[in-house]
Every structure is written in structure tokens, then in C-alpha cells.
Amino acid sequence: MTTTERTRALRRRMIVEARRATVEHGLHGFTIEQLCETVGVSRRTFFNHFSSKDDAVLGIEQGASAAMLRDYAERAVVAEELDPLGSVVALAVEQLHVVGLDRADEALVRRVFDREPAMVAKFLTAADAQLAAVASAVRNRFGWPDDPDDHRAQLVAETAAALLKVTAGTYFDDTYDESTGPPFDVLLTDNLRQLRAAITTTGQDPTA
Fold first, then answer.
1. What is the CATH number of the domain that holds 28?
2. Stretch 135-141: mean pLDDT
């Protein structure tokens, strides 16, 4: 296992243990010190990855996506010839490959929100901030002006977010069978294809 892989695994352990502790004890029912002891890391190590206990529970890692977004804005990470929406979907797939995706972990997040409803608002605030960061990266990648009347970057980012939401709704449904169904990135790519078909069709049967 490489150093990068070990770091990712450590972050995941801290996130999962923070979520488990929240479900069992509530957000205020355990300390960062207790979490660190469970995972086997120092307080300093914890704060190298997360700015607060809340962020650990929500999986908001310090600077985790910033470097990738910077590279994306500089026309790296994903194929340069991709159009704006296709490039953001490809970026999402690349991030999934980096951080991983676990249906059991998603179920744990739902239990966290059931136990601590206030965390939903914090999650949505973080999601809005991430969406703004993606829109800024799209704007820089394609050289669009930072003009309040130019909504292209925001529209691309929010459309990609909608595709991710629809895909997640399928993939994380309790009835979805991972052993027979396609992986998340395949579902996401197919939803992108369906969206492109939907917005380019007239809605009429050309053979009628």
C-alpha cells in the first residue's frame, strides 16, 4: 500500500468511526480525543485532516478536493477535449475512484442524520460551497468571464449535481443489487447520455 493509499484509508477510518460514535452517542456524546483513541491517531493527526468533529462526521476533509479542482481548472485530470458538462461528470468519476464509494457508508450517513437532524443543514451548506468551487473551476477551465450575467458555469455545475443526485437515488436504493447492477460511474455516464438525448429530441416520433 502506498503512502497516499494509507492516508486515504486513515481518513476513511476516522470518518466511519466519527459517524458510528455519532449514531451511538450523539454528536456531543463523544470527544475528538476519544475518537482519536479509537482510531489510534494523535489529536494533531486528526486536525491535519479535519477542521472539526462535525467535518469528520460529514466527511469534509481539509483541502481534499482543492488540488483536484485546481488541476481540473488547468485542463488536467480529465480529457481536454470533453465539453463542460462531460468534463464535470468525468471529474466526479475521478473523485469517486480516489475516495471510494460504499453503500454501507451511505446507510450510516442516513442514521447520522436521523440521530442529529441539525447535521443535514451543515451538509447542505458544505454541498453549496463545493458546488460554487466546481462552478469556479469550470469557469477557469473554459475561460468564461466572471460575469454575474454569465450563468454557464453555474448551470453546468448544478446540472452535474442533479445527475449525481439521480444516480445516487438509484445506486443507494435499498433494493439495488450491486452484484448484478452496474457500478455507480456506469450509471452516472448512462444518465448523462439520457440527459443529452432528452434535451436534443423534439419529443416527436420521427416515424409517425
1. 1.10.10.60
2. 97
